[in-house]
Every structure is written in structure tokens, then in C-alpha cells.
């Protein structure tokens, strides 16, 4: 068994096309039904304002599977400690023996999250997309744009953040990448000329609505990854010509589809139909939201073309999956041992 620290992992794994292609192979395998992916294990540690998520998946044909433990303790900055941490345990898919432990401190999660955004844009955005609006100014706000540059010729960035004092330093860092960067005081102003919109916030109430969407835009929403977070107003998903998620089950619980599930629950309790659809367990008492739901893995595996014209609006909700963790861990270990 090998132990690797973050410094070595960062040196081996970058935001590059090879890493992106590996994560995309994982998504495609998921779309073909070649992945065993249990539900996320989540545990709250309320007295310390903390939480822990455990994600895993086995991809048929991959040499190894990974189990990722990802703690978030959000009072840590007061102690001079990072709020996010974690490690990835990598096991042989043939023997079950531990091959390696990657003490990446959340680095691989950040990379595979950004690469998933680029994969979504590669399949859903216009090929001539050059202008990106980013809502948020944290780590993913930077990494998502850098990953997008792998698939689109991005030259202009518009940014909005709740605190302008966070947006300005972010803008300076992004200008160092050779981008034209504009800081805006409203979401609508940031999005009005966008080819791609990326939401990267911990918002608990929607920040993006249908009236903010220009014709032909692609939206990647990656901030909602737990039951208490939301970035998209329901109108965004209803307005979209195609709504895609990494996995429907996770989107219904942690991602943006939960808005419809909760509304359906309320309507059921109130004795009204609410949303059209056949009743069944598992989605707020209803079988379908008021639009078709696609999964990114099947879009990739089946070569689905959801953008039927340059005017089409597409939305992708990314909650983060175990298949991404196993894919990036296999990639990391191949680089570290080569």
C-alpha cells in the first residue's frame, strides 16, 4: 500500500484533457449501466458545525475502485484551519486490498468537479461559446473557467458575487489568465451576454431565474450539493429546452430537482395536483417533473444531441458523484506510479 500527500498528488494531476477524458469515460460507463454507485452517505456533526460525506463507485473494467471521505467543518477558519478536507482510499477491484491512500485534502474533488463542468459544456453548450458568466468567487469559480478553456475558446468573463470585495480579487486572478473580466453588481447584468453561465455558490435560496437567461445559453449549476442548498429558480428548469443532471436521484435529494419534489409534497399534503405527472413513490409522490430529465452519462454514452439550434437553452445540474471520484483516483494513481 502506498501513501501519497497532497503535494505529490497536485504535481501529478492537473486540469488537462487526459484527466477530463478519464472522468468522461466514467460518466459514459454510468450511462451504459456499467457502474455500481451506492447513495451518498452523509453525517451531520452539528455541535461542531460540521458534516461528512462518503462517496464511492465501482466502474466495470477499471482496475481500482475508490472510497472518498470528505469532511466539511465550517468554523475551522476561526481556528486557522481549512474548512474542507478529506482523503481517498483506493482498493483493487480484483482482490479488495488497499492499493493506496491519497491524502489529497479535497484537491481531487475540486479537480473532478471542475472537469465535470467542462464535460457538460462540451456536450451541451454552443461550440462557438466564448463568454462565460460566473456567479460566485470561490475556488470553483476559478477552476470551472480554467476547465472550460479545455473545451471552448473562452475570452471574456463576467462575474457576480454577493460581496464585491470577493469578486474584485477573483477578477484580478482571472485577468492573469489573459481573459477580459467584468465585475457586475447584479446577476442579470452579469448574465445578459453570456454563452455559458456557471453557478458556484453555497446559496440556500435561488439566485438565477429564467429572466436572467439570454437566448442560446448553457447553464452549469454545481453549487447545490446538499438538501439545504439551491441556486436555480424553478423557472430556469422549466424554461430550458433540455435539463440534464449527473444523476437524477442525487438531483432530487441534493440538487435542483428537489424544488419540484418539495412542491409536489406540499401539493399532495394540501390535496391538490400541483405538477402534472403520474403518482409514484420517490419523487415527492409524483413520477415526473413538468419537463424531461436527462442524465449526463446517457447523453454521453448515447451521443444524444440535446441542443437542436443555437437558440436552445440547456441546463446541467452537477451534484458530484462517486463515479467521478473513482475515475479521478484511478487517473491519479496511474500518474503517481508511472
TrEMBL record:
Pfam families: OCD_Mu_crystall
Start and end residues of each stretch annotated as Disordered: 263-282
A GO cellular-component term linked to this record: cytoplasm
InterPro entries documented for this protein: NAD(P)-bd_dom_sf, ODC_Mu_crystall, ODC_N
Superkingdom of origin: Bacteria
Gene3D superfamilies associated with the record: NAD(P)-binding Rossmann-like Domain, ornithine cyclodeaminase, domain 1
Record's protein name: Ornithine cyclodeaminase
